[in-house]
Write a structure and sequence with these properties.
Layout: H1 2-12, H2 38-64, H3 69-94, H4 102-115, H5 120-133, E1 148-149, H6 150-154, H7 158-168, H8 170-184, H9 195-218, H10 221-247, H11 262-268, H12 277-282, H13 289-294, H14 303-309, H15 321-324, E2 332-334, E3 339-341
Parallel strand pairs: 1-2
Antiparallel strand pairs: 2-3
């Protein structure tokens, strides 16, 4: 049934006839990087889950021993970075790229989904729709950042104008958005999901609640909340920022349905976020986002290898930590100028 729900999601969001153009010769080379390695995938799970568990133990002991809460928060920052990496592994399970076997991807998808507070099948449903609809102005709203065109913004009602400006403020988008998404939004299924996606939300909620009860029994509610809330908040802010800069940047590609091209959407509608090595590790190479959209079945640990092997992927100038900060000023899509601009 999981396959039926996903197939339905993808079929409903297929691009218009004519949107697919003849692919360049190098595109076929992407297939060589799709094969996952059970050794590398297993090692990624071990080298992320184990230190994440150790950090939880240290944070618990820091609170129980009466150390300053600032120490717990410092440990929570590192734990949050590991949680971002766990989300990338969860994301690979969603695409069926962490393991060859569908059952292994599903099992670890649910396990990691419990840790990152995200239901596997429900998020898979919306995320696969995102992959076939991003950069398409006529199919916005599936797993993306709310983006208005300049015309829509100028003709919005006072409430719509206020809501959009509020949503686009960094405090709401990154700060409150992280808590809203992971603590509230993902506790409910999407509007157009099927029975399997709704069941995955219920099952994940039960798993999370079960962990909470066990934690409350052994370490107490106060200790659990003093650790879990900052960890999920810090990780959520980092995750939303990563997703924001992947599709909201100067020179990004958007098009109406009749003009939308899958290849251009991947190469020009997704960024290359060039991060330092340590941040690249914590973010699971997701900065090579244009490569990911070209080959969603490529495991995270092969994205950089693929990028370096194919010169055609080097055409887009990368975003750096410094230049990415300017993207926060981009608010709406100007269809006449074909670029993201600030509020008028």
């Amino acid at each position: 049934m999981a396959g039926q729900g996903t197939s339905s999601a993808v079929n409903q969001a297929q691009p218009a006839p004519g949107a697919v153009r003849r692919l360049p010769a190098w595109h076929a080379s992407l297939a060589a990087y799709r094969e996952p390695s059970i050794g590398k995938s297993g090692w990624q799970l071990l080298n992320t889950l184990l230190p994440y568990g150790i950090l939880w133990f240290l944070m618990i002991r820091s609170i129980q021993s009466g150390y300053p809460y600032a120490l717990t928060l410092a440990l929570a920052v590192v734990a949050a970075a590991l949680l971002v990496r766990l989300f990338i592994l969860f994301h690979d399970c969603v695409h069926g790229s962490l393991f060859r076997a569908k059952g292994a991807n599903t099992f670890f998808g649910y396990l990691l989904g419990m840790l990152v507070f995200t239901p596997f099948e429900d998020w898979r449903f919306s995320h696969l729709r995102h992959h076939v609809s991003y950069a398409n102005l006529d199919t916005r709203g599936y797993g993306d950042i709310w983006t208005m065109t300049r015309t829509e913004f100028e003709h919005a009602s006072k409430w719509g104008w206020f809501a959009y400006r509020l949503y686009r403020s960094p405090v709401v988008l990154l700060g409150l958005g992280a808590l809203f998404s992971f603590l509230l939004r993902f506790r409910l299924p999407g509007k157009t999901t099927t029975r399997i996606e709704r069941a995955s939300v219920l099952f994940t909620n039960l798993l999370i609640f079960g962990v909470m009860l066990i934690a409350a029994r052994f370490i107490g509610w106060r200790t659990y909340l003093l650790i879990q809330l900052p960890v999920i908040w810090f990780a959520g802010m980092a995750g939303i920022w990563l997703f924001y800069v992947q599709h909201q940047f100067a020179g990004v590609y958007w098009a109406r349905k009749q003009d939308w091209e899958a290849l251009r959407a991947a190469l020009e509608g997704s960024s290359f976020y060039q991060l330092p090595a340590v941040l690249r590790w914590f973010s699971g190479n997701i900065g090579y986002h244009h490569v990911h959209h070209l080959g969603p079945r490529i495991p995270n640990y092969r994205l950089r290898e693929c990028y370096e092997a194919l010169p055609a992927l080097h055409a887009r100038p990368p975003l750096t930590l410094r230049t990415s900060l300017a993207t926060i000023r981009l608010k709406i899509w100007d269809e006449d100028r074909k670029e993201m601009v600030g509020f008028p």
